[in-house]
Design goal:
Chain A is an all-alpha fold and about 90 residues long. The first copy, chain A, is built from 4 helices and no strands.
Chain lengths: ~90, ~90
């Protein structure tokens, strides 16, 4: 019983962590879209982060982990949008 | 033997993914430090992402996963630096 509660708490912390790091890009993409400015972003950052997300997604598919797949698929869509805005607004 | 090779490949993809999403913040922090400008960053993004990393680190400690602990500890240091630069340069 106590072990199950501990497991549930651990899972909740992991899910909250994944939701935050993934969904944090929603206000960022929105801000970049409105501001029409992306000069403060490093190209290396956006390209390396996007590539990393694609690899995370691949990893999630290989280990068949739905949370890893879901979090990284959503993040990848947001990052591709951010890269597109960075290409447009530099 | 084939299963072991497949496991090693999977691990390598995961490690490469973690290295990329974590280390991508090195050029970003460096660029923000040199450019002295962080106005393109959304406050919600930097705060939510940093909070998410702290929770990932906590999750890593709870499940005793050294890769999760290591990747998120390094990323957290970089994000705290980015938040500091964002406070300074807005």
């Amino acid at each position: 019983m106590l072990a199950a509660v501990k497991q549930t708490t651990t899972d909740l912390i992991g899910m909250l962590a994944g939701s935050l790091t993934t969904l944090s890009f929603v206000p960022q993409v929105w801000k970049t879209y409105r501001r029409k400015s992306a000069g403060d972003f490093s190209w290396l950052y956006v390209v390396a982060y996007t590539t990393g997300l694609a690899l995370w997604l691949w990893y999630g598919l290989l280990i068949a982990s739905m949370p890893v797949i879901l979090a990284n698929a959503v993040a990848l869509v947001l990052l591709v949008a951010l890269v597109g805005l960075k290409v447009k607004y530099r």
